[in-house]
Write a structure and sequence with these properties.
The protein starts with a strand and ends with a helix. It contains eight helices and 17 strands. α2 packs parallel to α3. The chain folds into two domains: about 130 residues, Rossmann fold (3-Layer(aba) Sandwich), CATH 3.40.50.2300; about 100 residues, LytTr DNA-binding domain (OB fold (Dihydrolipoamide Acetyltransferase, E2P), Beta Barrel). It is of the alpha/beta class.
Length: about 250
């Protein structure tokens, strides 16, 4: 039997989550609840559960305030947040699992299964999440990349390009390292598009700052500053030329 504590400032939302867990997850016992940072601190000082359901926005602060009070918390954390495109972006950049309110029962089930398996997010990943949530319009400095056996934190500016490998993605970094991530190129293209990354081909996503020149011969390709050549698809040529023109104005 796993123990759980719910930290949620909306009473209706808390009762719904409690009901769903009790009805559909008999292996989880809810041992306490809290509706604020202060309440959560009191509860967690007495006992730390196996799983902590933690709302981001609380009446007297945030879920991060709870985590700062307990830097050595051993509980697996399932963040709960209201549906918000900025929140979703922040969780993706930090590679931290979350449940969106209102959630489907299947989403809650998946989150609980992942929580049972996951390693705790370290302070650096929590900082990425916190900073991205705090300044949603700002370009994030870093991204967490989930490889097969660990999570690597990379500066966004250190990414030269991403290359599709079936349903996976290979990140090429400016120190020559490569990072293999088990998510699709489309996932990262959607995520990085606002921050100077351009999908130039079905298989290639490029950091615009790393482009040296567009060569029109041989079907059209980009020369990158590290000496690599990357093909540009016919459909993307006009877009690439337009962006390069804007960069050089």
């Amino acid at each position: 039997m796993l123990t759980a504590i719910i930290v949620e400032d909306m009473k209706d939302a808390m009762e719904l989550l409690r009901s769903d867990i009790e009805s559909h997850h008999p292996d989880i016992k809810i041992i306490n609840t809290a509706q604020s940072v202060v309440e959560a601190a009191k509860v967690l000082r007495k006992v730390q559960p196996d799983i902590l359901f933690l709302d981001i926005m609380l009446g007297d602060g945030t879920g991060f305030d709870v985590l700062e009070i307990f830097p050595d918390l051993k509980s697996k954390i399932i963040f709960v947040t209201a549906s918000d495109e900025y929140a979703i972006k922040a969780f993706k950049f930090a590679a931290i699992d979350y449940v969106l309110k209102p959630y489907a029962k299947e989403e809650l089930k998946d989150a609980i299964e992942r929580a049972k398996e996951q390693l705790q997010p370290n302070q650096e990943r929590l900082n990425i999440l916190k900073e991205t949530l705090a300044a949603p319009e700002k370009k994030p400095d870093k991204i967490s990349l989930h490889t097969l056996d660990k999570i690597i934190i990379v500066n966004l500016d250190d990414i030269i390009r991403c290359e599709s490998d079936s349903n996976n993605t290979m990140f090429h970094l400016n120190d020559g390292k490569k990072v293999f991530v088990t998510k699709t190129l489309k996932y990262f293209a959607d995520m990085l598009k606002p921050y100077g990354f351009l999908r130039i081909h079905q298989s290639h996503l490029i950091n615009i700052q790393c482009i040296s020149a567009f060569i029109k011969t041989d079907g059209g390709y980009l020369m990158l500053k590290n000496g690599e050549n990357v093909p540009v698809s016919v459909r993307k040529k006009a877009k690439v030329i337009d962006i390069l023109d804007q960069m050089h104005r």
